[in-house]
């Protein structure tokens, strides 16, 4: 367990996200371990399209 974890001012962490280390303020986070929400949402969208992308070959 990290006793020196800092969540920066204005940070938003979506429910059930895992925060293993300090995060910067003024950003939105999601996932486990957390990533910036915008990047995590892109990752999820690509994973959902994998079957479609492989079938095009």
DSSP helix fraction: 25-40%
Instruction: Average the pLDDT over all residues and give the rounded result.
Output: 91
Q: Detail the poorly predicted runs.
A: none
If you compute it from the alpha carbons, what radius of gyration comes out, rounded to the nearest whole angstrom? 15 Å
Number of helices: 1
Order of helices and strands: EEEH
Number of strand segments: 3
Largest sheet: 3 strands, mixed
Number of domains: 1
> Structural class, please?
alpha+beta
Strand content: 5-15%
Give me the side-by-side strand order of the main sheet.
Answer: 1-2-3
Distance between the termini: 46 Å
Shape: elongated
Structure description:
The chain has 57 residues and is α+β, with helices and mostly antiparallel strands. The protein has one domain. 33% of the residues lie in helices and 12% in strands. It has one helix spanning 37-55; strands at residues 12-13, 28-30, 35-36. A 3-stranded mixed beta sheet has the order 1-2-3, with helices on one face. The N and C termini lie far apart (46 Å).
